[in-house]
Amino acid sequence: MVTALHTVFATPVFRMLAGVIGLMGLINASLYPYQSLIGIEVLGLPEAAFALVLVLASVVAVVTSVLLGILSDQKANRRRLAMITALIGALGAALMVFAPGPVSFVLTNGILLPVASSIFGQAFALNRLASQGFPDQREGIQATVRAAMSVTFLLMLVFWTFAFGWGADVMLTYATGGLASLALLALIWGYWPRDGQTGWADQPSGLRLGAALAQLARPEVALRLLCLGAVTSSGVLYMILAALVFSETPGRTAADTALYVGLVAGWEVPFMLLLPRYLAHVPRPTLIFWGTVLYVSHLIALPFLAESAWIWAMTLPAGLGGVAMLILPISYYQDLMVGRPGTAASMLALQKLVADVIAALAFSAGLAIGGYALTAALGGGIAILGALGLWLADRGRINPALA
Question: Which residues cross the membrane (predicted)?
Fold first, then answer.
């Protein structure tokens, strides 16, 4: 039996997409973990101004992803849009390399890089189309391609851990991010299939912008988006709480935070490759529910076990449960919006916005009422309610394609 991993390596378009997603992992690991340090401590932006940059980035990323997703379905001009957005990302990194400063920081991190982030959705839209010839391996191919980002993200974090230990300047992160962005542009230019010359059907939807947006606003679509946003908000809350919990735990340091996050990411890779084997036997909403339960167990345990050696054991359910939240929503939206892979991929940006808002509300409410333990429990409860709501909405459906 031919495995999805073999198919990805043997098929040019999937090899290219794995390269695209892998390069995005390098870019993300170079540019995003150190945003706050560079903006506030190196460039001297006030914390309020930095917060506004984050809000601007979130709005730009969502608007761009949705509009480009709809446009790519409308015109089927996916290669051209991918090249334009990759070029914008390279320009953003170059601006901070050659003209670093507060204005460049705002333009790069608030506008240019968020626009370029839509490449993620565009890549998985193409992946969906190219998988038409491999219906039995679709989930496995998608998981394998997505695993490339986890691998490169982890490797780049390890690289910067050593580089900073050797005295590297944090501003060099824009140089590595820029080089990866140029490589991404070159890869798309050289290997992304030309529009209208593919071996699979890519029929333009012809929908006007208003009609396409109206489909996203349908109650059955909005409900599922809200449920998945609640599920993935637990991941956002984990990234907020991890450093705070470890920093306030006696005997723990920033190195423990890095190790914990690295172990969680490390477990995700093999689980991503194994997950598709079970999708033929277990409905996707059920896997999302149990994955959420596993993930929430590590989130709730974090404040209680941070001082204990048992905390390292919790990286296993975190990695296993996290895979369900990382991989399954992609194909879920593709089945929800049949025939519009670009629009389906753009829903990931909308989901992230919902998750960010829910996580922020849970964090604020939890700290106002109690401490980190209550915050983690509150966020975990919201995530489980979201997963349960998704399961109830789709129970009895073999394929929740509503479009």
Answer: 12-32, 48-69, 81-99, 105-126, 147-166, 172-192, 225-246, 258-275, 287-305, 311-332, 353-370, 376-393
In angstroms, rounded to a whole number, what is the distance separating the alpha carbons of residues 86 and 16?
14
**Cα angle value 246/315/147 (rounded, 5°):** 120
Q: pTM here? A: 0.81
Spatial distance between the Cα atoms of 321 and 69, rounded to a whole number of angstroms: 28
Burial of 168 (0-12, 13-18, 19+ CB in 10 A): middle
Question: In whole angstroms, what is the distance from residue 84 CA to residue 115 CA?
Answer: 10
Structure tokens at 286: 């059920």
CB 302 within 8 A of CB 238: yes
Residue 10's contacts (CB-CB under 8 Å, 6 or more residues apart) are: none
- Alpha-carbon distance 155 to 178, whole Å? 17
Distance CA 292, CA 230 (A): 10
Among 129, 61, 122, 345, smallest CA distance to 216 is for: 345
The pLDDT tens digits for 112-145 are: 999 998 898 888 888 888 887 787 787 788 888 8
Full DSSP string of 90-108: HHHHHHHHHS-SHHHHHHI
Give the residue carrying structure tokens 């340091």. Answer: 253
Residue with the bigger pLDDT between 207 and 81: it is 81
CA distance readout (Å), 11 to 82, 197, 375: 20, 16, 46
Proportion of the chain above pLDDT 90, given as a percent: 27
Number of Cβ atoms within 10 Å of the Cβ of 159: 15
394-399, long-range: CB < 8 A, 24+ apart? 394/224, 394/283, 394/284, 394/285, 395/285, 398/283, 399/335
Burial bucket for residue 251 (CB in 10 Å: 0-12, 13-18, 19+): exposed
In whole angstroms, what is the distance from residue 114 CA to residue 56 CA? 9
DSSP codes joined into one string, 22-51 = HHHHHHHHHHSTTHHIIIIIIS---HHHHH
Q: Which of 114, 91, 335, 100 is nearest to 343 (CA)?
A: 335
Residues 6+ apart with CB under 8 A from 101: 43
Q: With contact defined as beta carbons under 8 Å apart, do 109 and 53 qualify?
A: yes
Q: Which DSSP category does 299 fall into?
A: H
Q: What are the angstrom distances between the C-alpha of 167 and each of 85, 171, 254, 391?
A: 33, 12, 17, 50
